[in-house]
Amino acid sequence: MEMLNKPSSDKAKLTSHFMRLDLYRQLVDFGLKHDSFDLNTEYEEGSLGAVVAGPLRLFNADTATLRARYRDDPQRLEAELQARVGGLQ
Fold first, then answer.
1. pLDDT tens sequence across 16-35
2. Is 53 within 8 Å of 80 (Cβ atoms)?
3. Model pLDDT, residue 88
4. Rounded to whole angstroms, how far apart are CA atoms 45 and 21?
5. Which single residue of 19, 50, 81, 83 could bond 43 by disulfide (Cβ 3.0 to 4.6 Å)?
6. pLDDT of residue 87
7. Can you tell me the distance from the alpha carbon of 44 to that of 52, in angstroms, rounded to the nearest whole number?
8. 57 Cβ partners below 8 Å, 6+ apart?
9. Tally of helices (H runs) and strands (E runs) in the chain
10. Domain locations in the chain as residue ranges
11. b/e map of 5-33 (b: 16 or more CB within 10 Å)?
12. Cα–Cα distances in angstroms (integers) from residue 64 to residues 19, 38, 40, 55, 75, in the given order
């Protein structure tokens, strides 16, 4: 309700930040679990591939490297994503 009634309040901004972070986390998870996804592919603007690529490009690494890191330690990759998106604020 805070986001609807007072979108510029600190609580609403914090909620929005966590929602964005969770969305990015889910997009990263989706991209890395689907073998057909590759950051080297040119995805049409507005397509699911382009949307998934956005947060994955924050890591400045290729798809194979990210998949290996995700397999080895998904929590660490998630923590890095959180830091790149802006931490806990």
1. 888 999 999 999 999 999 99
2. no
3. 53
4. 21
5. 50
6. 64
7. 12
8. 39
9. 5, 0
10. 20-87
11. eeeeeeebeeeeeeeebeebbebbbebbe
12. 27, 8, 11, 15, 17
